[in-house]
Amino acid sequence: MIAFPASLLILNGKSADNIPLRDVIAELRDEGVEIHVRVTWEKGDAQRYVDEARQLGVATVIAGGGDGTINEVSTALIQSQGGNIPALGILPLGTANDFATSVGIPDALDKALKLAIAGNATDIDMVQVNDKTCFINMATGGFGTRITSETPEKLKAALGGVSYFIHGLMRMDTLKPDICDIRGEDFHWQGKALVIGIGNGRQAGGGQQLCPQALINDGLLHLRVFTGEELLPALFTTLANPDNSPNLVDGVSSWFEITAPHEMTFNLDGEPLSGKHFRMEILPGALRCRLPPDCALLK
Fold this sequence. Notes:
single chain; alpha+beta; 9 helices; 15 strands
């Protein structure tokens, strides 16, 4: 029998009644695998559970939930002080699961959980925003951010990732571009942005590939700005000429600064952050994460 290292699963409270997951955990425990389970109720729980995990001496802290749960757990891990920081495991249980999907986490609960417990731990990058908060996957601004933050929970529960698309169609009349200035290493752009994606990972919003060339261990952020006055004309222009669209602006840098004359909101792995100035900076190799050996986001 393979000796699996001990782990602690931080489970989003919305998944507390997941019967198939309970069965998988019970089967692993019957095989001698040590798994502690903690359920989140409010903001700050993840940090407390990460602290407890370190006291227990587990090898892995597993984030069981969607992109927001992964964000909260990974942020708590990199903000921990001292040695013996557990690796991050991922158990996708959210609506979109953008990060888990892009890095190749299996859909089957048993396979995902075994990978989270015993997969090879790889150093990956995180991103710090304004020196106080972080994201592991992507920061999105503009129309897409307003849609993902406004999509009703009942619609997401019923339709999953496609709910964002449907809600977006319903809100087309509210779309206005954000006037902003974006700077990075050897990069400067100023104009009207319909959608902004700054990616450590590649996709957001339920499967939209905003930064298709991004890697999570290359020390770089990838930027894509979808520009224009109105969404539909810009979209048609881009679809007609996707390789050389005047409405797409791309950049690569270890940091980006965004300033705007008005308040903007960025969605950081599902968590909104509003302001007029954002500095997003890569933290190279800040976190160890258990990923598939064929993960497409590793260089």
